């Protein structure tokens, strides 16, 4: 099957392109946000093929995977030589995010489209987005297992938050000083430098994360972060706010999950003080991540949807 999709979310796309299909990835001369092409710091198979706009217009496309409103509004039609997603070529709309609005206004841009299927990455997102009459499915994240990298030798926390300064309260950036009362917190992610953090390439990020004693997830309101799941795969214990999908994804024996900040700060202190306890919780998290977010299940779920719409 020829699947056309933009490289929007590096970690998610890395898992998706591991399937048994040919993946057509838009690229332009500038490698802009609408022409990023293949990932530079993730390992992608040769079946993920870069296509220019001229090439895409001539490609036989079986399914389009849309991920952003402007793709649906005209960008995909432009790249596909006038073929309209859902009408001239089968399409699904992959929604990565939780809605950002008052609850009565959380209407999805692909709502009331009988020719589309909206795929959510969490059940929480499916519940909160109003997709009207559009068919919806949930396909939870899948992760390419980075391996049991955890050592926890540094008595520090690590948080991975993209654009932490701009997103502020949404990602719990304002809570980081509270946790720093218990242990140093190292911040990684896009634009983390604005808060004295680092933006590391993916091929270095996991190794640096695994050196820290625990993974901190202070996020108030976003979709379930792939970095949290990756940390569990690596065998890292977790301290996390009990928001969105977290309580369902992180088992009780994998760390501390609560909306009481004082309890979470105490959890950080406990992991810093008791490295063996941290290691045991990390092992439990790794087992849970394998069972729920394994790559084989993820690819099977996507094959079911792709075959149904194609």
Quick take:
With 310 residues, this protein is an alpha/beta fold.
Blueprint of the fold:
Elements: E1 2-5, H1 10-16, E2 22-26, E3 48-51, H2 53-58, E4 63-66, H3 69-79, E5 91-95, E6 117-120, H4 123-128, E7 135-138, E8 154-160, H5 164-167, H6 176-180, E9 185-188, H7 202-211, E10 212-217, H8 226-234, E11 238-241, H9 246-249, E12 255-258, H10 261-273, H11 275-293, H12 295-309
Parallel strand pairs: 1-2, 1-4, 2-3, 4-5, 5-6, 6-7, 8-9, 8-10, 10-11, 11-12
Helix pairs in contact: 8-11, 10-11
Structure, described:
The protein has two domains: 2-142 and 295-309; 154-293, Glycogen Phosphorylase B (Rossmann fold, 3-Layer(aba) Sandwich), CATH 3.40.50. The protein is 35% helix and 18% strand. It contains twelve helices and twelve strands. It has helices spanning 10-16, 53-58, 69-79, 123-128, 164-167, 176-180, 202-211, 226-234, 246-249, 261-273, 275-293, 295-309, and strands spanning 2-5, 22-26, 48-51, 63-66, 91-95, 117-120, 135-138, 154-160, 185-188, 212-217, 238-241, 255-258. The strands form two sheets. The protein has a seven-stranded parallel β-sheet, with helices on both faces. Helix 8 (226-234) packs across helix 11 (275-293) and helix 10 crosses helix 11 (275-293). The longest helix has 19 residues, at 275-293.
């Amino acid at each position: 099957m020829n699947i056309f999709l933009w490289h929007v979310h590096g970690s998610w796309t890395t898992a998706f392109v591991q399937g048994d299909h040919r993946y057509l990835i838009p690229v332009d001369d500038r490698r802009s946000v609408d022409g990023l092409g293949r990932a530079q710091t993730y390992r992608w198979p040769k079946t993920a093929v870069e296509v220019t706009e001229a090439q895409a217009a001539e490609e036989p496309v079986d399914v389009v995977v849309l991920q952003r409103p402007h793709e649906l509004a005209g960008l995909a039609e432009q790249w596909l030589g006038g073929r309209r997603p859902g009408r001239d070529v089968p399409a699904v709309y992959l929604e990565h995010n939780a809605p950002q609005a008052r609850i009565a206004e959380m209407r999805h841009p692909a709502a009331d489209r009988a020719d589309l299927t909206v795929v959510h990455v969490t059940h929480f997102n499916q519940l909160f987005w109003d997709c009207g009459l559009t068919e919806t499915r949930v396909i939870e994240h899948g992760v390419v297992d980075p391996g049991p990298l955890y050592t926890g030798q540094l008595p520090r926390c690590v948080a991975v938050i993209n654009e932490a300064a701009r997103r502020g309260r949404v990602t719990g950036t304002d809570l980081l000083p509270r946790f720093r009362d218990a242990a140093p917190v190292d911040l990684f992610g896009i634009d983390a430098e604005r808060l004295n953090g680092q933006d590391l390439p993916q091929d270095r990020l996991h190794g640096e994360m695994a050196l820290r004693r625990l993974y901190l997830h202070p996020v108030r309101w976003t979709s379930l972060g792939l970095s949290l799941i990756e940390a569990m795969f690596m065998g890292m214990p977790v301290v996390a706010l009990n928001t969105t999908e977290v309580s369902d994804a992180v088992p009780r024996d994998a760390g501390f999950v609560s909306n009481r900040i004082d309890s979470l700060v105490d959890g950080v202190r406990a992991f810093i003080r008791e490295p063996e306890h941290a290691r045991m919780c990390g092992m439990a998290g790794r087992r849970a991540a394998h069972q729920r977010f394994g790559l084989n299940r993820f690819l099977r779920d996507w094959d079911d949807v792709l075959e149904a719409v194609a």
